[in-house]
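To close the section, here is one more complete example, presented without commentary so you can practise reading it yourself. The ligand is flavin-adenine dinucleotide.
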Amino acid sequence: MDITNAPLPIRENEPMDRHTSWRAGGVARYYAEPGDRAAALALAAWARAHSLALIWIGRGTNLLVRDAGYPGLIAMYRAQQWWIDEHSDTATLTVEAGAPMAGVARRLAAMGWAGLEWAEGLPGTVGGAVVGNAGCYGGDTAGVLLSADVLVDDVVETWPVERLAYAYRTSALKAARVAPGALPPLVLSASFRLTRDDPAALMAAMQRIAAERKRKTPAGSSCGSVFKNPPGDSAGRLIERAGLKGRAVGEAIISPIHANYIVNTGAATAADILALIDLARSEVLRQFGIALELEVCVV
Ligand SMILES: Cc1cc2nc3c(=O)[nH]c(=O)nc-3n(C[C@H](O)[C@H](O)[C@H](O)COP(=O)(O)OP(=O)(O)OC[C@H]3O[C@@H](n4cnc5c(N)ncnc54)[C@H](O)[C@@H]3O)c2cc1C
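Output:
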């Protein structure tokens, strides 16, 4: 395919271990990084004109590309601007989807705006959080989101939070099946509800969250929690009780610290990681009759 007429630079056969926090996985046949809304819209139009399958990503912190690679275009949306519309003790934050969730939360807290402080230390972008309903330490995206601007085909739509049909670690966007020949929706920006608070108290709360996150998170390359917690239970507890803590395949290991984390200890392949995923899923089903559901997105 001729990529010289693309609206922005396209890389060929881009290793996705460079763009995922697991540091593993195959290549994207084509790869691009649109830096603003106009570039993303132009890229989507170009992909559609060339019948090229497309996946939008944030920072790849909840993503695994199989070793066989992806035959289409993977696009990392990098637009990061944000602005605040103040109304006395409340405000609306509008932030572009490529902005880092934790970085924005920290800047807001320092300015005395509460709403996102639970996201301290959360890896990934606003877009990834909107799609996956990221949450931790008493908060989640669904609890503070007002609306999101979403590119659907070639139209930018504003989706109120209700339309995202949020549930635990999922949304209408994450669950959507893309019709053959259609492009998946792109979250362009999101608006969040903020309330005024004491900056010192907010910063102190975030420091406590940072310390707890540091204590609980296994070191090394991972994607965070691999499985969703089943209702009333914890995936990590079930995998640990199945006797799988510390189990390794190739250079991937079920963390001895937190059994819902699989850590790449060096040069793990996606196949190593997927073998551990299959092992955890089949052992938990066999021993406890519980079918674990993936939180991470496998391409
Ligand atoms: C060490 C570690 C700790 C973690 N802790 C937590 C935690 O406490 N709580 C939690 O919820 N998660 C946690 N995670 C997982 C991860 O941080 C979140 O899922 C995050 O929201 C993913 O954001 P991302 O930008 O990296 O998305 P990606 O991994 O790039 O993408 C995830 C999915 O969203 C889609 N997507 C991303 N951006 C867009 C966009 N703009 N438009 C359309 N689709 C898009 C992708 O196609 C993919 O399906 C952790 C991960 C790590 C590595």
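Once you have examined the tokens, check your reading against these statements. The CA atoms of residues 163 and 172 lie 7 Å apart. The first helix runs from residue 37 to 49.
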